[in-house]
Amino acid sequence: TQLLEQSPQFLSIQEGENLTVYCNSSSVFSSLQWYRQEPGEGPVLLVTVVTGGEVKKLKRLTFQFGDARKDSSLHITAAQPGDTGLYLCAGAEGANNLFFGTGTRLTVIP
Amino acid sequence: NAGVTQTPKFQVLKTGQSMTLQCAQDMNHNSMYWYRQDPGMGLRLIYYSASEGTTDKGEVPNGYNVSRLNKREFSLRLESAAPSQTSVYFCASRTSTGASYEQYFGPGTRLTVT
């Protein structure tokens, strides 16, 4: 079992604040994905990072893959209520094994 | 284009009962997956099917069986449900072409075993 630990587990912030969510593992992954999940729905992919040190931006969201491909971070600038949800990181090992982190539940208060 | 669909959306079973969770995708994907999601534990892979006619165990296969009926459909069966199988079950699919690992998830089935 590959363990991905996310921190913090819960995060409640005011609209307009910045935040960073971390995803750490002792294992090396071929790629790492970030998903967002809303209540009653399945996870939806936000981004995939493949190369160590890679940085990807998606509007106000910035994703970084660690140099050693073991960890990743998600930074949100000027959070909005629409960013509220459960954020999951997932490390890929081979083509079919995707190991999910325990998730960070974000609440953005208007 | 409905993506990944799952039925039923909710189910309550008594210990020892059996049931089959259905999943279908209309994206012509080769690979399909079954996960369970429990509080504080993220999603864990139960079984997957890399292509029609093949199935393989994931991280937590005990107590489950699967059938890849055709390219579109992948079902998950609980032969004798136990309270430990109370969970939310997600089906997902993925194309096998290129380097994309993106999985597309269904809306989930919330199962309670009493």
Structural notes for this entry:
The complex is a heterodimer of chains A (110) and B (114). Chain A has no helices and 11 strands. Chain A has 110 residues and is an all-beta fold. In chain A, a hairpin with a 6-residue loop joins strand 4 and strand 5. With 114 residues, chain B is mainly beta. Chain B is built from no helices and 11 strands. In chain B, strand 4 (31-38) and strand 5 form a beta hairpin. Chain B is globular and about 45 Å long. The interface between A and B is medium-sized, with 24 and 28 residues.
Please provide a brief summary of the model.
The complex is a heterodimer of chains A (about 110) and B (about 110). Chain A has strands at about 5, 10-15, 20-25, 30-35, 45-50, 55-60, 60-65, 70-75, 85-95, 95-100, 105-110. Chain A has about 110 residues and is mostly beta strands.
Q: What overall form of chain B do the CA principal axes indicate? A: globular
* Helix content range of chain B: under 10%
Main sheet of chain A, how many strands, which sense, barrel?
6 strands, mixed
The geometry of chain A reads as: globular
Low-confidence stretches of chain B: none
* SS element count, helices of chain A: 0
Number of strand elements of chain B: 11
**Poorly predicted sequence stretches spanning 5 or more consecutive residues of chain A:** none
Class by helix and strand content of chain B?
A: mainly beta
Q: Which two chains touch over the largest interface?
A: A-B, 24 and 28 residues
- Which oligomeric form is depicted? heterodimer
Distance between the termini of chain A: 39 Å
